[in-house]
């Protein structure tokens, strides 16, 4: 990152726009040290891309934010609330939701049943939430009685994202490899959904190996390599930096 970019980002990090701050965290799986002094900042309203090769630690970063993999050092804060060390369901109540890779839906249940299982808030908002989900995902509305396992990969990804938006109000969505295994045309459809969600006010941390898709959507980007952030810059700047793209991501 250039000096001017670093200074601009530092100034942004000190503002009221910061939604999530990951500050110098370390994460272990047993004796294995996976994340090393990792820091990143997500500003409200942004799409932030976290890219890197297989095994770089991208999913572990998301799991650490969600409290699924314990952080052994450092701090994670959302707004003014410190969240590391909390249980995943407590972090979910803070408005953070995670869509894991592999489109985890209940294949033997209908679209409607999948959504009802996810809408566990119990606060009387379910009807309004369903209407909003079906507005955002008209294809799911058309298939609400269809078993999830009989839908295409792209439709299942839509359902997985829709499930994550139900329950406590989500203002930060963590997406783990949403384009994985999808045909190029379907990747474009998923990208359009991500953009629409962001336009509707959802801040997004996007983990992707598809660098072209991720950088095309993102405002800011971090490159992760063997558990360490090795590059950060505005996404458009990284996308046009051929040397960095080839060196860090193997994209020529």
UniProtKB/TrEMBL annotation:
TM region positions: none
GO molecular function, one term: ATP binding
ABC transporter domain boundaries: 20-251
KW Amino-acid biosynthesis (keyword) present: no
Pfam families with a match to the protein in the record: ABC_tran (PF00005)
Any single GO BP term: L-amino acid transport
CDD domains for the chain: ABC_TM1139_LivF_branched (cd03224)
Keywords: Amino-acid transport, ATP-binding, Nucleotide-binding, Plasmid, Transport
InterPro entries: AAA+_ATPase (IPR003593), ABC_transporter-like_ATP-bd (IPR003439), ABC_transporter-like_CS (IPR017871), BCAA_Transport_ATP-bd_LivF (IPR052156), P-loop_NTPase (IPR027417)
Family: Belongs to the ABC transporter superfamily.
Protein name, UniProt field: ABC transporter
Species of provenance: Halostagnicola larsenii XH-48
């Amino acid at each position: 990152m250039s000096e001017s970019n670093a200074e601009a980002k530092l100034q942004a990090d000190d503002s009221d726009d910061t939604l999530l701050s990951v500050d110098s965290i370390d994460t272990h799986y047993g004796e294995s040290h996976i994340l090393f002094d990792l820091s990143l900042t997500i500003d409200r309203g942004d799409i932030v891309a976290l890219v890197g090769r297989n095994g770089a630690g991208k999913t572990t970063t998301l799991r650490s934010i969600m409290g699924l993999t314990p952080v052994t050092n450092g701090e994670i804060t959302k707004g003014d609330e410190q969240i590391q060390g909390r249980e995943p369901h407590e972090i979910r109540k803070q408005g953070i939701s995670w869509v894991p890779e592999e489109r985890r839906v209940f294949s033997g249940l209908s679209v409607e049943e999948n959504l009802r299982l996810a809408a566990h808030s119990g606060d009387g908002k379910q009807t309004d939430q369903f209407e909003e989900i079906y507005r955002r995902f008209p294809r799911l509305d058309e298939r609400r009685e269809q078993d999830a396992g009989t839908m295409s990969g792209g439709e299942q990804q839509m359902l997985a994202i829709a499930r994550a938006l139900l329950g406590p109000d989500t203002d930060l969505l963590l997406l783990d490899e949403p384009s994985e295994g999808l045909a190029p045309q379907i990747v474009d459809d998923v990208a359009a959904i991500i953009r629409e969600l962001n336009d509707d006010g959802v801040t997004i941390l996007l983990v992707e190996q598809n660098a072209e898709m991720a950088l095309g959507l993102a405002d800011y980007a971090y490159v992760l390599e063997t558990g360490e952030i090795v590059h950060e810059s505005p996404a458009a700047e990284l996308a046009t930096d051929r040397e960095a793209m080839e060196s860090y991501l193997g994209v020529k």
